């Protein structure tokens, strides 16, 4: 087995908690974060449910102690909160002491502000400051500034697999010696842009999302941010760091089927998982838990299910669940929050439940774990698939 | 460790950079604040039915990447990695306006789909039926350099023998008007807009797509080798020289080993301060090159800059139109490229003859 890259810190803010601890308690107690949207006024309020963080932008500004002149988008604020938590959790006090980088991910970027002031910019000079915070890169730049980080900083944007790709790049940067440590993850806030975008694709559910259920109707959007700190073995040893878990495998492949839909055979998903096993030097039977992408769209769960059956064998699939009934689908942050959940699963030896499931899908014999289960968890596989056929898989392993 | 060779190029820009050798048909436009593209014949590359709804960035990305692949005599690649600063901004504008103007009703998905940043990379993969590694970087002026760095790492990790890497950006009318509002773009009626020795803030904007077919194998038609790529979020003006010396040193090179330096002057008097000491002192004895007077400024304009640097190595000459000083060398072996915008997102690239 490939030893993998050490994870020494985590930070998260989602609709089920403002810290790692709060998220864990929610997962252990079926405390779901899917509600009616409050922070954004939209005509779709009554026909969608979302995983909304019940904090206003002003509350986030106060949490970060930003000045009134700030031009942080909500996405940037969520990201900064989670990244700071992760750095603190990793016991880092001098961020530039080693070659450190930030690989962030977002799909919304500053759109949450842009859509508010789009026409107002020309009327009200006070809003102009948000023009420059629209682009994805601004999020990472702001987070780096909040951390006082000077180093390699960049952003990946591949829709719903973004954060997985960020974690993957981070692991590769540590392995190659290009960086000694790296903060990796993603952030996305809810926005009218994405709510309407997904609505036009007709993949939003008007109820609670039911992953891998035969009667699933679609996803619930969510917002969140999560970051991990990855550090080289040299630093772990030198600083006597506690290793939470390791990133042992990763793979990215392209479905090359359609811009938004996944192929029926789940080729991209299959190839991504296969690659992750190659990197981890693990066999499918060594996986104890799959945190599936499981958005509960008719298309994803079928495609992902097919790929899982192809790879693991229909009756040899490990325990699996989607945690999106808890948090909603948090787009570019999804793989990051699910990385945190995967590490929690390893640390506490639990399989989190796939809520809202009642009826098995007719296409194959796959039944998710519907209740909290205590089991020895050595290796967790986490999938995240995005538009543009972008399929990514991560494998997390217990630190020996 | 495997080396990274640039074996194919494809460039769509405000200049005639396809079906030409090296900027012999270049035209300096100092009158417009937004440079328009020299469009290729799209239907030579894309089925006419598909062209109609395709975003500019997607069309240009497909053409430039196809040109690069043909140039490298490759049918497909082991990885597709793109960089873009704003993605297909026209479609973002379209979708957002439709939401606001129609109160979130009567919307269609096409613009939303094309507004996702990795749509160009996804479309190229679809066209090639390429199921390999496919990533998109979106981080201001280092969007392209991030993609290049990843591409080089992929080749060094030895599971990848060929990579298609590119930088794409497009202009959108409303976004350009917002940039004008906050002074990112030069004010109207103040031409000529010169990039060198500018005394005003703001830039002339542009758009384009530049792709490079990289391989771990040197071939007869290879253009150059990529020695190193580095990105850095922040740097003080007074620390630039030190940083560049360190970058060169980590590659066992010194300032005197650099045969030409390509600098990302964009005509914004404050942003360009970063190049002043480099030009006047550090590289006073080095041939200096600039390019944004031809390409315009956009987040991935440095991909056009790399295209210029690579062409210099291939042709062993610097066209007059891109010279920012009058020095020449008899041979151009090693070229350093440096770009940034307003003091953030610094990119350093080192290429050499192979």
TrEMBL record, chain A:
Organism domain of life: Bacteria
Annotated Gene Ontology cellular component terms: cytosol
A Pfam family: Ketoacyl-synt_C
One biological process term in Gene Ontology: fatty acid biosynthetic process
Gene Ontology terms, MF aspect: 3-oxoacyl-[acyl-carrier-protein] synthase activity
All copies of domain Ketosynthase family 3 (KS3), residue ranges: 2-398
Keywords: Transferase
Entry protein name: Beta-ketoacyl-[acyl-carrier-protein] synthase family protein
Organism: Flavobacterium laiguense
Lineage: Bacteria, Pseudomonadati, Bacteroidota, Flavobacteriia, Flavobacteriales
TrEMBL record, chain B:
Protein name (Swiss-Prot/TrEMBL): 3-oxoacyl-ACP synthase
Keyword annotations: Transferase
One GO-annotated biological process of the protein: fatty acid biosynthetic process
Pfam families according to UniProt: Ketoacyl-synt_2
Residues forming coiled coils: none
A GO MF label: 3-oxoacyl-[acyl-carrier-protein] synthase activity
SUPFAM superfamilies assigned to the protein according to its UniProt record, in alphabetical order: Thiolase-like
Residue span, Beta-ketoacyl synthase-like N-terminal domain: 40-170
Taxonomic classification: Bacteria, Pseudomonadati, Bacteroidota, Flavobacteriia, Flavobacteriales
One of the record's GO cellular component terms: cytosol
Entries under Gene3D superfamilies matching the protein: 3.40.47.10
